[in-house]
Recover the amino acids of this structure.
């Protein structure tokens, strides 16, 4: 209807058409929120070279910052098991999660055990430290095929070969020196993840990591040509893809 058409409506008709429009709006909003939940579940925004759902909604879909955040909150509240995640103006993320008494006790015990390594004791550093350890420990190991599983001698030799290869890989793995990390950061300046279909580069400058294009566990080197800068989200997404890890749903 055009604006002039509304002037022709009686009070009763105007009231009824508004009610109908509101019902349609609620149905449409419900659909939009369901779409957002699925986009978030699939992490589609990462594939399209956006570091988070907030950037996807504001820069790709066209929502204002306030509208995007309100819809993100509403979409995630519809999933009771999900923590509340709020994207802030400086691109940091605020996480709110409810823990049981036992879980909180374990977290505090972990924090105390890490006090010598992380004197500040800040929760963001504790979680990042533990995440790095898990990612390193869970990296795929070299798989050795046992040609004769019924032959104990061959099986023992294969296990020993696997152990030797893993030991050699650990010895060969050298930490990335700070000067090289700074060189790569100066060269790339932002997340270099690129959507293969559109060519769009993520470009965020928040939570940047130096990433090996050919992974260390696949004998990738620390040479500058094998390094790139990725944001934390795309770094983890690429690790999952390379390691063949399915995202928990």
């Amino acid at each position: 209807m055009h604006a002039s058409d509304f002037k022709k409506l009686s009070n009763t008709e105007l009231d009824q058409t508004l009610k109908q429009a509101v019902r349609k709006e609620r149905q449409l909003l419900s659909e939009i929120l369901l779409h957002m939940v699925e986009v978030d579940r699939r992490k589609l925004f990462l594939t399209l070279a956006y570091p988070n759902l907030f950037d996807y909604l504001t820069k790709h879909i066209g929502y204002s910052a306030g509208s995007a955040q309100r819809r993100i909150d509403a979409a995630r509240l519809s999933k009771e098991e999900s923590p509340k995640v709020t994207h802030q103006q400086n691109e940091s993320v605020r996480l709110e999660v409810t823990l049981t008494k036992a879980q909180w006790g374990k977290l505090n015990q972990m924090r105390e055990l890490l006090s010598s390594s992380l004197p500040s004791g800040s929760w963001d550093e504790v979680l990042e430290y533990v995440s790095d350890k898990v990612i390193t420990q869970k990296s795929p190991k070299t798989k050795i095929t046992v040609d004769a599983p019924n032959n104990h001698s061959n099986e023992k030799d294969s296990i020993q070969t696997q152990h030797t290869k893993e030991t050699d890989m650990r010895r060969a793995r050298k930490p990335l020196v700070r000067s090289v990390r700074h060189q790569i950061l100066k060269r790339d300046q932002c997340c270099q993840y690129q959507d293969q279909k559109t060519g769009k580069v993520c470009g965020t400058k928040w939570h940047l990591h130096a990433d090996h294009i050919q992974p260390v566990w696949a004998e990738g080197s620390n040479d500058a040509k094998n390094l790139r800068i990725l944001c934390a989200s795309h770094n983890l997404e690429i690790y999952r893809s390379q390691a063949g890890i399915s995202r928990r749903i």
In short: The CA atoms of residues 18 and 24 lie 10 Å apart. The longest strand covers residues 208-212. Residues 144-172 form one domain. The chain has a mean pLDDT of 79.
